[in-house]
What we know:
alpha/beta, 6-stranded mixed β-sheet
Amino acid sequence: MSKSVVIVGGGLVGLSSALFLTEAGAEVTIIDNAELGSGAARGNAGFMCTAIVEPLPAPGAIGNALKSLRDPMRALRILPKSIPSMAPWLLTFARNCTASRYQSGRAALAEFNRNSSAILERLSNQGAAVTLSRELLVPYHDVAKAEHHFEALQPMVEFGARIPDRVVDGDELRRLAPAITDHVRAGLVMPGDRSIDPRLYVDSVIDILRSRNVRILEHTEVTGIASSGDRVRSLDTTNGTIDGEEFVLAAGAGSRLLGKHFDLRLSVIPGQGYNVGLPTSPGLQQPVIFEEVHAVATPFEDRIRLGGTMEFGGDHPPFDGRRVEMIIASMRKFLDLDWDERFDTWAGSRPMSADGLPFMGRPKRWRNVVVGAGHGMFGLTLAPPSGVAISELVMTGRTSTDISAFDPDRSALRRQHRC
């Protein structure tokens, strides 16, 4: 049975939801306040992870955030002027920076992502560009930290993640990626964690949706809603009134502001990240994450994309070029690349929830609204399973995966979940 579905947000979650909804026979309209696939949808590192998926709030994170008030070059940074508006979010974030809540959050994300390989195959069968890279590498200078990371990955096996069978030495990493410097002494080769080019994925999905006659309204703002009881009837927008039977809220970093139109309190704020391009190198042909400095490098066909940092600076965080220099400086000791030929510096915001988990599901307030927001740093990894879950919920009223941990009405202090 066909349904008329309006999706607000043309980022990774909105586009993936539209793809699976149209596959199920829905008539879809996508509304975006900019262009489809703008923002972090194309600007991310491209990681598709099964084992390295975790919430941002973790033991020690709040301490690092507070230190950034004095040291603006820390990877996790809070701009002092944004603290008053962020206070409720920060308090909840601090409460979730415990070992037990970190482990329960990681378990919830891993369980949700368990069937990612099968979902990627569904995407590929529809024509989406999801060709995977070689294995993700995780180099370390400190051997003890590499060993600790290896041990921390062991519980992920329970959720179907493929993890390394051992810690490798620096020479073995250099045989895989000769651009890795002698500074690296140990590391991990992640068999189940890889990357795709997010630009190709986004463009391919948009092409598929256009071929399916999806109605696309770009540069269109939602200004209000019309409702009757517990059902939304239509949206008021800068491009006229948009009617629908079902409504999906997937506005990324703008989800908190969008939620206000629906009387929903979605505790999602922008977390700005940066990236910059370098020329490709035969010495780096697979993605790398540098946990010791919180930075990444992903080789694409036309560039190596370097990225990192998490910066909280309000709803419209300013661009700070020093953050890009910090990323480059932190990675020089790990990689031998053409550092003087950088290009295409970029900054964009990820939708960050205070407990590190997305908001997904039907809020109690509305019978015909589904939320998909707050996917944080793992938007590309989580967008395909989110698209499946949202499509199932819209079309059948239930999901094949457990999304109870992502309840859009959940209290600020996250419930405990099985590790």
